[in-house]
Design a protein that fits this description.
Radius of gyration of chain B: 22 Å
Oligomer: heterodimer
Structural class of chain A: alpha+beta
Distance between the termini of chain A: 72 Å
Helix content of chain B: 25-40%
Largest sheet of chain A: 9 strands, mixed
Strand content of chain B: 5-15%
Number of strands of chain B: 3
Shape of chain B: flat
Radius of gyration of chain A: 30 Å
Mean pLDDT of chain A: 90
Largest interface: A-B, 62 and 41 residues
Low-confidence stretches of chain B: none
Helix content of chain A: 40-55%
Number of strands of chain A: 17
Distance between the termini of chain B: 40 Å
Number of domains of chain A: 3
Order of helices and strands of chain B: HHEHEE
CATH topology of one domain in chain B: Histone, subunit A
Low-confidence stretches of chain A: 1-5
CATH class of one domain in chain B: Mainly Alpha
Chain lengths: 501, 101
Amino acid sequence: MGDMQDNMLPVIGLEIHVELATETKIFCRCANRFGDPPNTHTCPVCIGMPGAMPVMNQKAVEYSMKVGLALNCTVPNFTKWDRKSYYYPDLPKNYQISQYDLPLAIAGHLDIPLAGNKVKRIDITRAHLEEDAGKNVHDFPAHTGVDLNRAGIPLLEIVTEPDLRNVEEVMSFARSMHRLVRWLGVSHANMEMGQMRFEPNISLWVGDPEKVFDESAGYFTPIFEVKNLNSFRSLERTCQWVIDYHQAQIAEKGKAWSLADVGKQNWGFRDNLNACEFQRGKEEAHDYRYFPEPDLAPVVVDDAWRQKIRNELDEVGELPIARQRRYLTEWKLTEKEADALTQDIATSDLCDHSVEAGADPKRVVNLLLGRGAAIANERGCVIGKIGISDVQLPDLAKMLTKGEVNATAADKIFDIVVDSDALPAKIAESEGLLAVSDAGKITEWVDEAIAKNPQAVEDVHAGGKKQKKAFGFLTGQVMQLSRGAATPAEVQKLLQEKLGR
Amino acid sequence: MTEKKIDNELIRHIALLARIEMTDEQADALGRQFTDIVAYVDKLSELDTDGIEPMAHALDVCNVLADDVPGESLSSEQALANAPARDGDFFKVPKVIGDSQ
């Protein structure tokens, strides 16, 4: 078995469901809103009344096109919708309007970042636009409650080729997609609200890892499909669990544990068990009986419309992964810094605009990821929206570079600037935070500190282990007297002179 | 022209998909009717359809689109008015597990 263990390669494809952030639902003009009381945003269309007719939301089509183009997909001239039939209480029509053979976007790719400054291209099979189902609420002991506010919210399903080969790649792809749809402004992608859900298809290739899909060189274990994962954590745990499970099955059953013999299975992730459990096998696979949706007209996309969406995409500018790479290569940031700054467009834009205004990138990044991140955390918003502008931030960064303020003063100015329109230079002046390296002024503070702290002075003179601590204490006293404005190096130099060391 | 027999097993499968209960007599009768219907529709296969695009819609229309502007919805009372059972403002259904998606 030893050799076999070495030749097991995870082969993973990902389906990602993204709720689009339109004002209204996909086929009716009920509000697309999360968190309101149950069944307050419904109408005959989304509740599935016989005879009610759906009308396609143009914005939902355009948001989908935008994602398709951002993923380097072809947006075909002709797209249509189909009925996918199945019975479930959250699906009032007993069919979901989805897209079967002619989706809105096909054959694209996304280049995902990997550790060690590497990049891997993941092919996108398709992206299609469908309606979300309602929400089953399981808070009742003996029955289930159904809330149809979610029924009919536009849902974009993005499907990858089975190009992902380990958990790291899955997670990088998932995070990249999450960032991308938020960047484009087409989805809030809040996972706690179910606005982004993952569905991995996981199998292991047992055989020559250079010849995946070549039947003469190996075989696949059964494909496990796990639906409805609504956190990065559950996605990561699911992938790892399924990989481990397959390895154990191979060890036990050998070649009998194969896709050919067992087929495809549906499994569900149980958060409380931190494990997956069997749901259904190929025998119970759904029979969806897709057929063209007679109530919806097809959509024809001409060059002008496609170009309009492409122009909108161009206005968004450089996308997050490209920015991340630029921060790494041009600004020489760490992977962690580059990642943190490209979480959202507001933060990244603030950073870029500040550097364009002539500030040193490293200074800007340190300010944003230091005091900026702390304030964002306190306020529960992204760093880019804490209130410092792309005029104020470079001003502060430049003052630091020129030594006009020290780091302590810069943090204080930062705290004031987020709630003010004033320039940091003005604040530094009015608050007396400008760095003082003038020896005369600092000497006054040094003398005062020495006069007020005879015990510390004595400790310094006494030497020994107390000396260093006492000297540090006196330095701190001087800094305090200067309200943080004195240049620390100058303070220490003068203190040393005065104390005769 | 192909001869398609709709056997009892297939009728039972279709009935299950549609959540319809039926007696053996009904299944037999439906089997004969389905066989006739499929044979009738199958006449279309006499035509040469090579190179003809499948029809996506009965009408020659496209791009029937609505602006993304909120309109009126039903009140929850109206929405639940025809529900066979309710619990508070929820539709009440037998216990199920998870979501369909």
